[in-house]
Amino acid sequence: MINEQKKMTVSDSSVGADAKQPLCKNNEIISNQKQVGNLQATNNIEKTSASVNTGVEGLDAKSLVEILDTTFPPQIPLIEDFLYPGTYLFAGAPKLGKSFFMAQIGFHISTGTPIWNHAVQKGTVLYLALEDNFARIQKRLSKMFDMADTDKFFFAIESKSLNEGLDLQMENFIKDHPDMKLIIIDTLQKIREVGGDKYSYASDYEIITKLKSFADKYNIGILVVHHTRKMESSDTFDMISGTQGLLGAADGAFVLQKEKRTENKAVLDISGRDQQDQKLHLKFDVERCVWDLEKAETELWKAPPDPLLEAVSRVLTLENPKWEGTATELVALLDGVEIAANVITRKLNVKADELYNKYHIRFTSDHPHGQRRIILQLVEEE
């Protein structure tokens, strides 16, 4: 999954296990970029039956049976164990180094090179540097990465507010760049409607909800740069400026803090729906203007190997990267695993993320002519 085109200057201190890369070169192996794209999970729900009649007109409800029988696109991390598709706040005091951090993340994703030994999903990145100018961006990036370049990292220094058409601007950009992975908005205040400095819980919740709906629609990540308040709190995330509506609507948050502004060391607290809580100790390299990882306060929990997925992975080989058949036929091929044919499809639906991210196998199922069929295929990331 990693395209190591250029050697990066960032430190390789590890906070998580490296993702192994698929070695498949067979023509039958599908490209993740072409197949994953920017999909909505809701567009992949099988239209096998009418929505439940709830008595409420226009309510699209799904039964538990439909949900369990649905194969959703796998949730692929943008940066392994660090950043996932969705909408996230990135908060810190002014002039703390947030913009350098955003440029660092954007460059690594756009080049597909690991950051701190985390595997990266390569794709286009759009950085809305709304408090910057292109001359400053030129100097900053050349200092951070010398003359290394990438044609997948884009910058804009002006945009509409969210209520005045930013969503359409982003949508048009995605149409021209279908491999879009991340949009960085620097800062939140710059895309809000013109008004007072005071915002209510409802308005805070609304603006992040709109961004989250957009991120979910196109299966991308959106990082929203924001400030922290001066008031200290025992809960780091209570220091995010504004109401709890911001964090309540977001998929997660990053909070960057220094004990002293003059120090080059900082602590990054991470919390989110799709990743484990983390506290990372970082050091800013003043010569290269990049953040290096010094240590992780806690070791990430890793799930033990799943016997079912291990057995499924042995069905495919480099010579035979695709398998298609019924659940009964698949069960007969699995060594050392006892599972009913009417259960295995649902199990694989639930485990589709892990099957893809750990074993590089895409699982799908359909039922032409009334008989459900399972499709397994090795995937090579471009």
Structural description of this entry:
This protein is α/β, with parallel strands linked by helices. It folds into three domains: 40-70, no CATH class; 86-296, 3-Layer(aba) Sandwich (Rossmann fold); 304-382, Arc Repressor Mutant, subunit A (Orthogonal Bundle), CATH 1.10.10. It is 27% helix and 21% strand. It has helices spanning 32-36, 64-68, 98-111, 134-145, 166-176, 201-218, 244-249, 307-313, 327-333, 341-350, 352-359, and strands at residues 30-31, 86-92, 124-129, 153-156, 180-186, 221-227, 252-257, 265-272, 278-285, 290-296, 322-325, 361-366, 373-380. The strands form two sheets. The chain has a nine-stranded mixed sheet. Strands 1, 11, 12 and 13 form a four-stranded mixed sheet that branches. Strand 3 (124-129), helix 4 and strand 4 form a beta-alpha-beta unit. Helix 9 packs across helix 10. The model is unreliable at 1-52 (pLDDT under 50).
